[in-house]
Amino acid sequence: xxxxxxxxxxxAVLMAVALLVSLMPAxxxxxxxxxxxxxxxxxxxxxxxxxxxxxxxxxxxNGMARLYTYIQQVRAENPNTILIDAGDDIQGTIMTDDxxxxxxxxxxxxxAAMNYMGYDAMTLGNHEFNWGIPTMxxxxxxxxxxxxxxxxxxxxxxxxxxxxxxxxxxxxxKVAVIGVVTPDVPIWDGGKEGIDGCTYEAAxxxxxxxxxEIGTQADLIVVSAHMGLYAEFDxxxxxxxxxxxxxxxxxxxxxxxxxxxxxxxxxxxxxxxGGVRNGGRDIxxxxxxxxxxxxxxxxxxxxxxxxxxxxxxxxxxxxLVAEAHQKTIDFINGGGSGEEGQSxxxxxxxxxxxxxxxxxxxxxxGKLRDTAVMDLINQIQLENSGADVSAAALFKDTSDLxxxxxxxxxxxxxxxxxxxxYRVTVTGKELKAYMEWAAECYNQWQEGDxxxxxxxxxxxxLYDMFAGVDYEIDLSQPKGQRIQNVMFHGAPLQxxxxxxxxxxxxxxxxxxxxxSIISGTKEWESSNSIRDMIVAYFAEHSPVAPEVDxxxxxxxxxxxxxxxxxxxxxGYINAGLLDTPYAESYNLSDYDSLVAQAKAKAExxxxxxxxxxxxxxxxxxxxxxxxxxxxxxxxxxxxxxxQFNVTWDGSVAVATGSAYEGEALAMPGSAPxxxxxxxxxxxxxxxxxxxxxxxxxxxxxxxxxxAQLGAESALxxxxxxxxxx
Length: 725
What we know:
There is one protein chain. This protein is α/β, with parallel strands linked by helices. It folds into 3 domains: 8-325, Purple Acid Phosphatase, chain A, domain 2 (4-Layer Sandwich), CATH 3.60.21; 346-555, 5'-Nucleotidase, C-terminal domain (5'-nucleotidase,  domain 2), CATH 3.90.780; 605-723, no CATH class. The chain contains 19 helices and 38 strands. Strand 11 (220-226), helix 9 (242-248) and strand 12 (254-257) form a beta-alpha-beta unit. Helix 8 (203-214) packs across helix 9 and helix 12 (372-385) packs across helix 16.
């Protein structure tokens, strides 16, 4: 590693040069220098294909196959490209959790794909530890690249992966990559094979030791840290904080963060920091310009969204990947039962859908009242554990069981984690403290609020709902003072009363014990997963009807449901003229400004569908004609009689009658002007030519295209009004 301390005179000269360089065009600044690109992935969570197995359909914005398409493009631009990953890759899908991670001696499709993609290094994530140390070592041992964990040692005192850092050389530049994982692994996975016998060093200390070992062997220091910038549990010492790594190690040039599934894109001086979301939705790109002496003269970081990137067929064609993908689909369709989940057998049947419809678009009723989904999960946990009380979370706002046949994907949708079930004795006081902790997910209701809202700092999976007790949540009160009238077997629950609690292993370790909410220890653990319990329940009890016992409710609020002003505002929200008030409630005191905001948006609308406002990007050709982004139209028409799906496999293909499978695209700041082209696409297999504009890889079509999809449209005062039954 080069010495970074310079004499004052030399430093002054370099500062002057740097200033001059900063005023030059980038291409001129790089002339005669070197350009190193580092691509960082993380938290791919087993998503190779770009497929939602719980929904049994393709996705449009994620997956390792899409990442590889972009990786190949960058490598073609710059051969001096380094590819690293920051962990949480072998867990997270039905493919990984329910098939391959249970057979660690077999070739693993995620590692096979990563080998093909040509990774230079990978850091362990906490989810690599989910099945214990031996399983982790067998799976990552298949990697043809170094797997790093500089801060985790086994009972033999050696690093569990055999390496904490590696050096990659490109264009004469030696880049040291140091990998560290959050030391909180035992909080989540304590008790699993080999976990408790390991030592987990503070990340900043492990990085410091690695930098000392590297010494002068490297020109650049890259840290790949499976943790967020700020502490998750150890706020006092920062052992699990990436910012603490930076504070203690100024030699670092590039920092990759992970774990939190959020975009991080920032610079601290010349240091570049990047982090991505989960599932292969983004990639972090770090570009470093160096002089002839391998000193950094410029640096940049960009987080590249994979929305609408064409998946690599090379990745999908890897024999093991293709086999694993089909095996998983067969597993889903076969209900996961029998040898390799033979096709066609449903797990069971429901008599009706389990979740109520949302009154306000985007506000999940499943977190605002007791529902059949949560009562089912808690009932199953009570039956299997023999506990008095059960706690479980709605892991995803939209989790539901449809009416009719239920397959394994449906079970995965309502219970996506491979948790086991614990039974533990708690006091009445401890249970109430736990319930208060869960109720912190809500914002406090204020006089005049027309809706309840949620603290955005509390992810869905942290909000537990309880069965076996009756209780009220008073949202007029601040956090910590909300749980009221807790009844157990018809009598008020006493603080010194003992009862048993059924709770999953993750919640027990990461919250109840880590935060000292309860003092007891587990007295029983299930031999199978909670997901397996749900599967067994359907096999035994089908047909299963949605049942709600209404054992809890929210009190202390008056949402003005009889006030016509509230109805008007709710109508604006549901029409898309006001944003969903998820993180902050709308208040009647702001009625006039909210109405003005909604009407202003209505005046600038470009598209409505059956009278409801829709976000559809527009573009113009050189003559000023208006074109509408095809994928936005597909998203806007989803659920109507004119719905259609858009796919790309070298060309645009439209399938009428099928719901669009992608997510909403980001809206551009303004309508661009693009080159008019004649687009030949297929509609239900028939080639159709349409006038179009191509902008940033997306096609915009003229409104006349809608007629071919069975939708009526008319331009009224600049608004494209679409009617689709």
